[in-house]
Amino acid sequence: MKEKGHRAPHRCYECGDGRCLPPLQEDPEHPSAGVSRSSTASMCRRTSFRRSPTPCSRGAEGPVMKKIRHYVAITAIVMAALYPVATQAQILPRTSDNRAMLPDDWLLGRGRAHHFQTATAPVPSTLVFREPRGQEIEIVKRAQQLFANSESKSFALINGNEVVWVGYKAPASNNSRFMSMSIGKTVTAMAVGAAMCEGHLMPFTRVNELVPELADTHLGKSTVTDLLRMSSGTQEANSDSSIETPDQANDIHAGRMSLLDLLRTERASSQYRGLFSNRQPGEYFSYVSTDPITLAVMINRATGSTYAKYVEQRVLIPAGIARPGIVGQDHFGYGQGAGNVRLTMEDWIRFAVWVKASSLKNDCFGDFVRQATRTQISNRSRTFGRAFGGYGYQIWTDNLHSTRDSFWASGYGGQRIGWNRSNNRIMVVFSNVENYMDELYRFYADWATLR
Question: Against a cut of 0.90, is the pTM above it?
């Protein structure tokens, strides 16, 4: 009789390098069928396994595999010593249970004195406010319940230019300007698209052509398309996708350092070096603020304008904003392309409606928006954007929890704009804490399926 807790050794298949392959399990639907030796043997032939002459315990590994593991561990230590720029620090606030958080003084703040305040559209885009009807009534009730029970500060459901429902939670109101966080990356993409259609930029324009200060860096090799797809191949500095240290952030705010100076640091501009390969531009998606900040600098150099002024003239005024907005920039006129735009909720709705309307036009900018809102690169690692399988041009795609033809502008702390290609139903949400996003995505799937 076997002692309690004792597991008898079992036969396994051992690879030529000493690794063990556990035996195939019986089919749970047909346990009496047992395990097919022929199928196991076939697997061994395909993978160069050979029969182990002796029993081996579950999880055992041969001497060669032990050496490999030892080598990997030593290499990891060496890499950490050689490339300390990947510090994985945290700049943005988080809750006690490690959720992305944006306090009210960030979400609803007025920005800094050196930020750019925009003009308004001569004729603001028309928004029609109406009551929900038909199937919309129950969906809106669900939205109101989700809004009441979540950390959302404002929530809007739109169909075309019709605002079917919008809610605010104190201290937010229709006079508040909501900070974009990384929704601002989508704003940057739209500005890049406008610059391309005006001939200032091309998809293959390299950073070093416009920014000679970065000519001798890995970042300087990237093209506009590489940057739009978040694939510069540069270092991943902080765990929240930011690239500056706390001291550098303070220097930028105080005017002692520019965003271009930040990009010139090894921490931002050097190549990502992995254990087995180094990343080249365009090869690998990596969500890092380096890329949109670089695009913003390129807009300065290519257009002769500042990023903020160009965003005002080519994005926000065409979108028809009715109230002055705020676009973040440093003391030297370089824009915070990774995300610092502040608009009222109604003007964020106007922006969302404009993006959708632009995607339906048969012109240069319409072509760009259609490309931007489709998957251009796979989000394989899921380190960021875990709900998304793909990325367009500073826009998330392939939402695993929502309608698969949807595309999203997404900001830290629970800021979201959701669109879809099938119809004109849009959702805009601003939040304090990013702790209900999967439920929000599933809700949008139901809103988007209404006709």
Answer: no
